[in-house]
Design a protein that fits this description.
heterodimer; A: about 120 residues; seven-stranded mixed beta sheet; four-stranded antiparallel beta sheet; about 0% helix; B: mainly beta
């Protein structure tokens, strides 16, 4: 099973709302990633968790707050977002082995619209 | 810094024609190379991956790619395009223990009937 699931599929929120995105995998992967993808652009890395610890934060604004409660689950908490944060948010996971070449498996994404 | 260049943001082919999507990387160290496909409003799906075991890599859906070190290229090909191949294709590279992916800008493949 090479499936990464993401919920919700679509999310519309106001600038004062608090919401969360959820990502789950049951492949035994120990690295999980959040990406942001704007229309007609490649994904941009936001955060990386390795063995449930935040290992990379690509200078993402604090209105995005990641959380990794366990090795299978990754959340992205959203608060006070701006309209320019509207995008497709993708989650990915990989084995987490060292040495490079780890294959990342992507979820279907959450389409976020900020009004 | 590592980079990936996909020549041609849009490629249009007729159904049944050869598909060729170009990818060049910049590095003096052999990289790991990936091709992903993204259908509208979906996530990225792995097509194939190069890990130095063989220079010609076969992937899903009839796609294959050849690693050419002398040309620093990893072009994606398919002998005969299907309408269902219409999508966005991303080439990506990783080099180090961090396994971070660097993506090319993407190529939108259009297939004409």
């Amino acid at each position: 099973d090479t499936e990464v699931t993401q919920t919700p599929k679509h999310l519309v929120m106001g600038m004062t709302n608090k919401k969360s995105l959820k990502c789950e995998q049951h492949m035994g992967h120990r690295a999980m990633y959040w990406y942001k993808q704007k229309a007609k652009k490649p994904p941009e890395l936001m955060f990386v968790y390795s063995y449930e610890k935040l290992s990379i934060n690509e200078s993402v604004p604090s209105r995005f707050s990641p959380e990794c409660p366990n090795s299978s689950l990754l959340n992205l908490h959203l608060h006070a977002l701006q309209p320019e944060d509207s995008a497709l948010y993708l989650c990915a996971s990989s084995l987490g082995t060292s040495g490079g070449g780890d294959t990342q498996y992507f979820g279907p994404g959450t389409r976020l619209t900020v009004l | 810094a590592q980079s990936v260049t996909q020549l041609g943001s849009h490629v249009s082919v007729s159904e049944g024609a050869l598909v060729l999507l170009r990818c060049n990387y910049s590095s003096s160290v052999p990289p790991y190379l990936f091709w992903y496909v993204q259908y509208p409003n979906q996530g990225l799906q792995l097509l194939l991956k190069y890990t130095s075991a063989a220079t010609l890599v076969k992937g899903i859906n009839g796609f294959e790619a050849e690693f050419k070190k002398s040309e620093t290229s990893f072009h994606l090909t398919k002998p005969s395009a299907h309408m269902s191949d219409a999508a966005e294709y991303f080439c990506a590279v990783s080099y180090n223990a961090g396994n971070m992916l660097t993506f090319g800008g993407g190529t939108r493949l259009m297939v004409k009937p």
